[in-house]
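Lecture notes, unit on protein representations.

Consider one protein chain, 89 amino acids long.
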Amino acid sequence: MHWYDRYVEKVPGVQGGEPVITGTRTPVRALVELFYVVYPSNLSEVRRALSHLDQTHIEAGLAYYKDHQAEIDGHIARHEEAFRKAHVR
């Protein structure tokens, strides 16, 4: 068991079963995209964008990503592909 397991869970029917921050519908994928793409390595901006989460939740999501990078990257790729398909005219 890892320390972040208290803060990250998979709930059937929530975000398609993707890992989310416990007690929320916020996917780990969203944290990762904000931290690495939208606000590169700027934790305070991520906290501002996800103000319903505290520092521990965000750090747990990022720690989960480090241990499950292929899984989360797969969710990111799947969402990007769905977005592209939805916006092709």
